[in-house]
Fold:
Amino acid sequence: MAKFGTWAGWPAYAIVLAVLPLVVTDPHGRLLLILITMYGVLALSWNLTLGFAGIFNFAQIGFFGIGAYTTGILVTRTGVEPWLALPVSGVSAVLASLVAFLPVLRLRGIYVGLATYVFSQLCIYLVLGQAGLTGGSNGIVGIPRLSLGDMSLRADGRIGYYFLGAALLFAVTLLVRVLTRSTLGRSLLAIRDNEALATSRGISRVRQHLIVFMIGAAVAGVAGSFNAFLNGVVSTDIFGFGYLTLLLSMIFLGGSGSVYGPIAGAVVVTVVSDALQDAGPWRDVVIATLILVVLWTAPKGLAGLARSAVTALRERRGRADRPPSASEPITHVKELS
Amino acid sequence: MTGDAPVLLAAREVSKSFGSLKAVDRVSLEVRRGEVFGLAGPNGAGKSTLFNLLTGIPIRPDSGEVVFDGREIQNRSPRLIAKAGLKRTFQTEAVFDSLSVMENLRVSSAYGGAGRAVRPDPARCREALDVVELGGDPERPADGLSLIDRKRLMIACALVSRPALLLLDEPAAGLDPADQDALIRLLGRIAGSGVTMVIIEHVLSVLEALAGRMAVLDSGRIIATGVPAEVLSDPKVVEAYLGPGAAR
Structure:
């Protein structure tokens, strides 16, 4: 049985997500919230392979784009029910992940990074080469908005999109939490720590990495689909360096290998990036400096900082509750009555 | 007695070269079920290379065959060799540092068996901890353990899936005499429970205390095999350790 304390934060997390749009009511603020949920989902999915499994996977942006293009093609070319496009986009990203995984079979480290980055870039050429289907360099425009009955998710400052994004974020956070605490999650950490030892304990690197690669791709595909519905257009920009650096910033700032860190990273990077909208190239300089400062002072990112703060607080509390031992100096004397 | 016991592991004419260097040169040995077999030799003699060839991590023999429990395994993947019941430890006290003590055992228990991954067996995990006498909070991080406790945990992880054969690569390396004694007692208990073991060791007192038979490797070749007292007084062995003329 799971301890109550282990799960006590989840209702609070759900309540915060539910209440946020009531506090942030202006359209721009709502859009930021929606972007935070989408980036949070994508960063969480990427962190599974990059942070927990230690795979230099740069194909995640490719899966995100494939999800978006799958949705764009399905709803504009085939007339598929838009809601159905969300899971189908996840499936198409999983199929693509089987191709992207091929270099992981043999290569290690930075070579996997290079090969998977090439995969994402090849997606651009694939899209441009199939212009009849994908719109080529014009992209796909006129993707219909999602609606529930007569109510468009765009109504009331896109509140429907916010709740869809928040539901996805909550579900993916829960998925990552459960997955990383499972035997599969622990085996990923074991492989990351010491592959030879993990193999000698009977763990298959290829099998475990493939599973986590596919799960991450499915989530990224759904996030891509969400992005397509939110913007109404899809272009090859989605495979670009902009998304890649943005997402990496979120993961490293938040703390790679932490369950909640990428969400904190998504919040900070999205808000800072928006606040510096008019700063031009200085925006990237400020974000890069912020990441350097955080990683220099706290290599495990914001999640590591939070963990250290909680540990320090607990230790202080523990010391305060404990009577001084003989070896500890008495630093205060109670007034005698 | 182990002298009549069936052969559990056999290496036959196993060789491995790295360029012009013959690291292991036509080595043959047999380990019988239930025995403790020692492997000694000077630095660079090829002991760890031989262990790596037996377990497939990360190399395979150029020639020769390795038979475990009646089946040739020299072409099997290291994972399948491990799943067949041949577990090993490493020279450096390797544990999974990101995991807790108990999580180290859980993943070893879940994946170490013969078939597909199973749910970790909590009773076996606790039993393995008891066997190696690793006390304290089992949920504490493994990266904070002392050297001897890391070795205890490494051995417990190898034992948790009840291997038929345990290969220990220099288990006493880096330990002070008191910890060496503790390790000898621990390995003695494990051997007493019927686990077959092959131990590579520089600390010869460990092999004298535990091994029923042993072999000495020098320059990739076996130069002596037999009971430890005889092998360690063999002039070829003395010469290999102390240099030419030392045996006179």
